[in-house]
Amino acid sequence: SGKDLQFVQKLVKLIEDNRVPAPCPIEQRWTARSTSPMSPAFSTKPDEVFSWVGVIMYLPPDEAQRQAVTEQFRAYGRLMQPLLDEFGAQVHWAKLEAPAQDTDEDKARYASEVTALQKRVAAKYPVKEFNEFRDALDPRRILSNDLIETIFGK
């Protein structure tokens, strides 16, 4: 349909207009559909093709610089969300970042961002079934972490 290229063109414009220090080139690749319900490329249509766009920032070894890059990356993600929504795109669930809550003033924004994240994940993935498998196969949550618990619930 050409939406894959339109997405990247709009992403480049967003990066340029907002002076986001995004590395170049922007990675874009295509894959066939997946039959795994937890895949962002899940489809029952055998001929469906999916486009993947790598949205990254490289972390330097200096801790202060790492923190600055992490903050820029979070801002980049928030800036991109309307574009993701427009194209029905989503971040791979295993690459999601938890919203930051650095101060007490961040509590309302944090709660709002967590709720929005959970809704986006639940709209795309079979969260109930995933949690049922987690309960059966990993009842003590040995293979979990705070991010997974935040996204999929405890």
Automatic annotation (TrEMBL):
Pfam families attached to this UniProt entry: ALO
UniProt entry tagged with the keyword Oxidoreductase: yes
Keyword terms of this UniProt record: Oxidoreductase
Gene3D superfamilies xref list: 3.30.70.2520
Residue intervals of the D-arabinono-1,4-lactone oxidase C-terminal domain: 7-149
InterPro entries recorded: ALO_C, FAD_lactone_oxidase-like
Domain of life, source organism: Eukaryota
GO cellular component, one term: membrane
Molecular function GO labels: D-arabinono-1,4-lactone oxidase activity
Entries under PANTHER family matching the protein: D-ARABINONO-1,4-LACTONE OXIDASE, L-GULONOLACTONE OXIDASE
UniProt-recorded name of the protein: D-arabinono-1,4-lactone oxidase C-terminal domain-containing protein
Originating organism: Spumella elongata
